[in-house]
């Protein structure tokens, strides 16, 4: 009987300059899929109803929480981009590579996917277990591309804590999802059109 040869897969660290758009998209969709699965499993292990966690609220107050925090964070991000040297906010070119040539509909899809998957895991599951402070530390560590510089790492922590705060105040996961979506969408579109002009 013949032995079948299976291809060998080797996982290795890739530097930002080695990434292609295709490889970056595969990585994005893989990690977000994994994030979604871990979030769902964690919520179910907490013996909570997933449909209740994701239930749409019967009031529109969550819109004010989500849109309000998004506006504050975008203004702060704009101020930081003028005050802080560009190299201190560098993410290794990942966001540039991800959004610069992307069609608008794809930027919308990416922003929505990331917002739902990350908020389900971090606010919906992890924050329920360990609270907003430790969740925000974990959220900052997960965004590893910023860890080389303390300013963006601190900004990710503060942003995460804000998302956790509006989740508690609004009582619905849709407030941080909306906020996260708006921030990623505006940032992605800014990169897309800044580089396209």
From TrEMBL:
Statement: the UniProt record of this protein carries the keyword Transmembrane helix: yes
Alphabetical UniProt keywords: Hydrolase, Membrane, Metalloprotease, Protease, Transmembrane, Transmembrane helix
GO molecular function: metallopeptidase activity
Transmembrane segments: 23-44, 64-84, 104-122, 151-168, 174-193
One Pfam match: Rce1-like
Domain CAAX prenyl protease 2/Lysostaphin resistance protein A-like: 103-186
Keyword Protease in record: yes
InterPro entries on file: CAAX_protease, Rce1/LyrA-like_dom
Protein name, per record: CPBP family intramembrane metalloprotease
Protein source organism: Paenibacillus cucumis (ex Kampfer et al. 2016)
